[in-house]
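Suppose a classmate hands you a notebook page containing two proteins, each written out with its sequence and a corresponding row of structure tokens. How would you begin to make sense of it? This section walks through that situation. The first entry is reproduced here exactly as it would appear on such a page.
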Amino acid sequence: MLGRNERQFWTKRLHTREFSGHTAAMEADANSLARCLGVVLLAAGSSRRMKRPKLLLPWGGTSIAGHQIRVWDGLGAKQIAIVCAAGDKAMQAELDRIKSPAENRILNHAPQNGMFSSIRCAARWAGWTTGLTHWAITLGDQPHLRLETLRALLACAAAQPGKVCQPRRHGHFRHPVLVPKTVFLQLGTTRAATLKDFLETLPESVVGCDVDDPGLDQDIDTPADYEKALALYPSRQQSP
């Protein structure tokens, strides 16, 4: 959780420059939904192409994992849970360092089965707090997304609370994926092989939240990707 000074810093950013293009009503809707939001931070990948754990890389005065938690906490999310590979001592040590509560860690005992196995673990997890109505399923290696993008996604979901919402750029759906409770619970029992396959089985189409954020198209999979992201998005690495 954020300390007082950190929360003031992120609140100021969220309510001024980074959210200047949206109306007060949209901001209020986003704030309201965030108070009932659970965040699934996917952090069980092997980082094979990076050759070192991606979420432990430095970003904004902390690690990528720490930055992601800080951002969602600053957005007002009610609960943030991190899906880790069982036995990943380095990740556990980093979560201890940034004071991420142990009770908000979900262990994936078969991370080799891919990202969707982590999502299914999260959907089956019994540790979610009561009162959550929506979940944001977010990739661990997206520290460079604009805060405005995430706020717009929350506002989109608040306007259509029964539907799945995704950011969309140039016609392509991207992550994070924001799902209502009814859909999130289905993820624990679905026979679909991937999240994309699962979403295609839903009776209603996914709602696209159109945003012009180049970071949505930027992957951080290799050392070169990481260095490029550091160079392209210095303003998104600010820390209190």
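The notebook's second entry, a different protein, reads as follows.
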Amino acid sequence: MPAAKPSRGFYRNYGKRLFDLFFAITGLLLLSPLFILIAIAIKLRSPGPVFYAQERVGKAGKVFRVWKFRSMVPGADKMGPDITSAGDSRVTPVGRYLRKWKLDELPQLWNVLKGEMSLVGPRPELPSYVRNYTPEQREVLLVRPGITDLAAIQYRHEEQLLASSNDVGRFYTEVVLPHKLSLNRLYIEKLSLFLDVKLILQTLKVIPAQGAANKATADEGSSDNLTAEQRENLHKTPR
């Protein structure tokens, strides 16, 4: 794949940050009642803090703390792999619901407000993964990481996909992550206001479908495997 060539227009240099600020502030204000309800649910069903912070790598290789609603038991990062797959026993009952509907990611609006993240951009990865990036893959660090992006949409069934592997960590680093990074570079090459709006709308469209699919999978007792449709959609680039 050719090297990513970010555009140098007004939107990339100024407009994208203004776009992020407006919707981050609006989102935090409008969603504050939901934040309170989620916080209460987490505290009632599981001991430990409401929020979880983890170090990730952002723009220009700067390490920052990404925020999420806690969806796993306290100390989960010391009890298993960094990557979570479907059926992980560390995930709490409330956490399963939050992850299914991507509600655990909402506190990242605070990261967006602070300028550490963008609404749309490559998902930030752990320093241990970024250290092994090739020079081409490090091009994803040219922009702020995002809450959603092309790869996040395409890999919306990632936990089920990983659960189908015998070696989750190796499968993620050797198969999933390289493909994600190629999609990240494609996004950077084509970065525009139109594309950002399109990806946000696609994200809002696929989340309900993902939640319903996950519920059906759980009801059938087969959360460890992707459906044929999910596998077929996995390697399709959203139009």
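A careful reader of the second entry would note: Confidence is low (pLDDT under 50) at residues 216-231, 233-239.
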